[in-house]
Amino acid sequence: MTGELRTDSGSYKLLLRLFLMLDFRDRENSGKKKFIGILTAYLVANTAMAFNYFSVFDKTSFAVLSLSSCLFLMALLSMNEYDNLILAGNSIQLLSTLPLDESSVFRAKFITALLFLLPFASACSIPPAVFYYFYDHNPADPLLFFLASVMFSTMLACIFITAYSVIILKFPQRAALMMTILQALFFAFVFYSSVSASGASRKGNSLIQKMNVLDNPGTEFLPQSFIARSMHEPWTLAVLLVAATLVVISGYLFISRNYAALSTNALMLSSKRRKKKLNIRTPEFLSRFVNSNYLRNDVERSSFYLVADHLTASRFLRIRYIPYFIMPVAFILIGLLIDAEGLLYLNTAGSISRTFSFEYPMLSPSITIILLMSSRMLISNTKIMDDITHGTDWIYKSLPQKDGHQILKGVSKFFYLVFFIPVMIILFIVLSARGSIESALINVLFTGFGIYFINSVASLFDKTMPFTIESGKFNSASKLLEIFTAMIIGIILILIQIFAFQNIIFAVATIASFIIISFLLNRN
User: Fold this and answer.
1) How many Å is the Cα radius of gyration of the chain?
2) Which pTM was predicted?
3) What are phi and psi of 101, to 5 degrees?
4) Mean pLDDT in the chain?
5) What does the alpha-carbon distance between residue 187 and residue 189 come to, in Å, rounded to a whole number?
6) For a FRET experiment, which of 46, 57, 79, 230 has its CA 20 to 30 Å from that of 318?
C-alpha cells in the first residue's frame, strides 16, 4: 500500500489500540482479568517483603531496601522485555508497508511501554508505601514514598531501555556481547547493594531495636540511600521529578529520531542470531552416564535434549538465561575474593547469630535466596518460546505420552546438570576455602536439597509445557512472579535452617527429610 504518510491523531490512536491489544492478548480472551491477577500477585508478594523489612529494619533502612527491590524488578523487566517494549517486532515489516509515519509508530509503542511499566512500578511501590506510614504515622509519608519509588523505578527502566537502544544502533555487530556486559554490570550493582545492606547492625543489644544498614561502608553511595535519607526534604521529589522527566524525554527523543535504523538493526540481529548455533561437544563418558543413569526414560531424554537444542540454537533464549547464570556465580566468587564477614557465612555479629547458638556457621541468606531464585527462573523461562515461534502446544497434545510431569522432569534435570550441580560444587569449594570442609558440606547439602525439595513440590502444580508461551510483555511479566515467590520461600527456607543448625542431629534429619520427600514426589 502506498500513499501519503498519515500522521493524524486517528492513526496514532489506532496504533495505540493495536499495540495494547497485542500486549495483553490471551488465548482465552481473558487478558485483562489475567493482568489484574498478575498485579494482585505482585501486590501480595511485595506486601510480604515489605512486612519482613518493616519487622526488622528502621525507617531509613526500610526505604533503602524497598527501593532496591523495586529497582531490581523494574530493571529486570525492562532488560528482559526490551524487544517487546520498544520494538514492534515482526509487525514492523507489515507496518512499514502502510502509509504511516514512523514517529507515530514509535510514539504509540513508547506510550504502551510506559502504560505497561507504570502498573508494575506502582504494584512494587504501594505495599512499602503503606508500611512506611506506620513508622511515624505521618499521613504524608506514604505519598512521598510512593512518588519517589515510582519515579526512581521508571527512571532506571528508561535508562536501561536507552542504553540498549544505543548499543543496537551504534554497535550492531557486538550488540549481544555488550548487552551481556551491561547485564553483568547491573547485577554487580545489585550485588553491591545487597552486600552493603546485608551487614545491618543494631544500636544496642535489645531485640526490639530495629536494624540499620546505613552504617555499613559503601551504603552511603547508593542512590537508594540518598533518596531514603532525604525523603522528607522538599527538594528531593523535585529533583527526582526533573531527573525522571529528563531521562524519559531524552530517551524518547533519541530513540524516536533513530527508530527506523534501530528497527532495521534489530531485525538484522534477529535473523543473524538464528544462523549461529553453539557447537558444544560433550565428553562421551558424560553422555553415556546421562543417557543411561541420569535420565530414566525416553520422555525425559526427549525434553532434556529439547531444551539443550533450543538454547544452543537461539541466542534470543540464551540472553534470557544469562542473568540467572551470572548472579549466583558472581555472588559466590566475590565472596571468595573479598574476605569480608557476611559475604559467604552469616555475619556472626548479627542479631540472629547472637540470639541462636549454631553448631555450624550458616550460609549467607543472600546466597540461599539468589540460588533459589535463579533455579526457579531458569525453569520458569523454559515455558517461553522463541520470539519468532508460535502455536507449539499442539505438538504436546498430539503426543501419545500424556504424562506432562515426565516432560517437565526432563527440563528440570537439564538445569540441575548444567547449572545447579556445577554451582553447588563451586559453592562447596569456596566455602571450604573460607572455613571447614564439614561446615561447607552441611551447608551445601542443606541448601541444595532444600531447593531441590522446593522445586519438586512446585513441579506438582506446573502444567505448562516447555516453549508453549509466546514471547510477549504480558506473559513474561507473569514469569517474574517467580522472583517474588522465590524470595518469600527463600525466607522460609532460611528460617528452617536457623532452627535446624542448632544441632547436627536436627540438620541431618532435615536434609534427610528433604531427600526422602523429594524422592517420593519424583519417583513416578
Assistant:
1) 24
2) 0.67
3) -75, 135
4) 76
5) 5
6) 46
